[in-house]
Structure formats: structure tokens, C-alpha cells
Amino acid sequence: MSEFLLAAEAVPPKLGIFRPVNNTVFSVLISIVMIILVYVMINRAKKGEKIPEIRKIPGIEAFEEAIGRATEMGKPVHMTDYSTALGDDSTFAYWSFLAYIAKQCAQYDTRFIATDANYLVNVVNQEIVKQAYLEAGKPDAYNPDDIRFIAGSQFAWAMGVAGLVAREKPAAQFLVGYFYAESLILAEAGNLVGAIQVAAASSPAQIPFFVAACDYTMIGEELYAGAAYVSRDPVIMGTVVAQDIVRVSLYVIILLGGIVQWLSPQNNFIRNFINF
Fold first, then answer.
1. Please, where in the chain does CATH 3.40.50.720 lie?
2. Other beta carbons less than 10 A from residue 188's beta carbon
């Protein structure tokens, strides 16, 4: 063991500071490029300058369809998530959808109910929904009792939400954010009352359950791209655009690297093909 440590210590660091382990230099360079690109895109978005457009995700149309159905039926719209903290990325995405859906419901005079499992997040939810009703020109229609904190415990919250759905019988239910084992409980509760259900989830383990039980599911990063599209917030827009640019650039680099390696004279396949 000591010999191995001595051998590791003997390896000269790259650039004088980075050890050649796990491509550290490449990771640092990518991080620096990402930070600069995010900063540039956010500033361009704030100034109203042109940045790559985020296309409209089909799931957004499903949101509008579900709200329209609830309005026609005269039934409420319900939205929930399992937020674990104020600083979670999925919570910020949830807030973008919360403002969008609340404003749509206010414009159509449709009752809107939002539930949550974090009392601090619930306080923010109340302010967001209140502001949405104000922007829609209907501040008097806002009912703080419909923006509810259910419980801080996971399954106490899940069963509380399922009971609320059974009592209120919403015509549309939106499951947005990061979910755990309670995902199917919520989706089945909506199915039992005949609600049209749209999920936007970033938890890979729970997406199959939403796909099976909901009418439409926004998968993985569509949650964040959709949040940027509906909010048009410069910070979210700039961040999503920067991530996509870096992602596409990496795909191109990997593809070009593969082609160069394939065409290399040292490649056995090319050598055998020529000899053949």
C-alpha cells in the first residue's frame, strides 16, 4: 500500500497544479467555459439581446388543455410537488410552473389549489399565486386557504394530498418537481376522480410510474426547459441555453473524436480493410 502511495506521489502534476487523475484538467476547463457561457447568456437575456430560442415543449400544450378542461367542467385545478428545500433546483422549476398555471386559472376564473410538503416553500407559494392573480387583474379571486401546507412527513403528505383529491375532485392535476415513492399514490388518486393529469418530473426512478398513470409526462430536463419557456425569466433562460450549447458542443467533440480515431492509420479495422 505504501509503495502504491509513493508511486502516486511521484507522478508529476499537469500544469504544475493538477494531478493526471480522472481528467481533472478537462473537467476544470469545462466548468470555466460553462460559468462564462452562463454569465454571458444571462446578461444577453436581461438586456433583451438575441439568444437561442427555447422551443415550445409539447407538455406545455398539455398544461393548457388540462386547464381548459377544468374550466369547461367547472371543477378546480390541483398542483403539488414534494419539495425538500427552498434551494432545490426542482423547487425553482416548480415555482415557474406555479406562477404560469395560477395566472391561467385566474384568467379563466377557475379555482386553483396548490399543496406542498414544506412549510417554507408554502409561504413562497402563497406569494407567487397571489402575484399571479394580481397580474391577471383579479386579486380578489385569490384564496390563501387554497394554497395549503399538508404535512412535512413524506407519506403523511402523500395521503393528505390523496384525500384532498378525493374530496375536491379536481378536473386537472399537475405533478411537478422531484418525487419519490409516493408518485403512484398521487397519480392513482387523480385517476380515481377522472382528472386529466400532467407530470413534469426530474426523478429517473419515478418517471415510469408517471408515464403509466398520467396523460402526459415531461421527462427529466424537460422540467427545466419548460420552466424557462413559461417564465421567460432571464436567469433561467440564460442558464438553460448555456447548458444546451455546452451539451451540443460536447456531442460534436465526441463525434469528431470518434471519426478521427476510426480513420486513424493505427485503427485495425482500417488496416484490415486496406489489406483486403
1. 58-231
2. 14
Q: Are 199 and 217 in contact (CB under 8 A)?
A: yes
Residue-wise DSSP of 88-153? -HHHHHHHHHHHHHHHHHHHTT--EEEEES-HHHHHHHHHHHHHHHHHTT-GGG--GGGEEE--SS
pLDDT exceeds cutoff 60 at 56: yes
Helices 234-263 and 222-231 pack at an angle, to 10 degrees, of 140
- Neighbour-count burial of 108, counting CB atoms closer than 10 A to its CB (0-12 exposed, 13-18 middle, 19+ buried): middle
**From start to end of 152-222, where are the E strands?**
172-177, 196-201, 216-219
The owner of cell 400544450 is: 61
- pTM, 2 dp: 0.77
Would you say 160 and 189 are in contact if contact means Cβ atoms under 8 Å apart?
no
Helix (H, G, I), strand (E, B) or coil at 48: coil
C-alpha cell at 252: 460534436
User: Quick check: 100 and 63 in contact, CB under 8 A?
Assistant: yes
CATH topology of domain 58-231: Rossmann fold (3.40.50)
What is the C-alpha separation between 29 and 199, in angstroms, rounded?
36
Q: Can you give the pLDDT at residue 11?
A: 56
pLDDT, tens digit, 9 for 90 and up, residues 44-54: 878 777 877 77
pLDDT tens sequence across 132-163: 999 988 888 999 999 999 888 888 988 999 99
CA distances from 63 to 99, 110, 190 (A): 13, 14, 15
Distance CA 126, CA 142 (A): 9
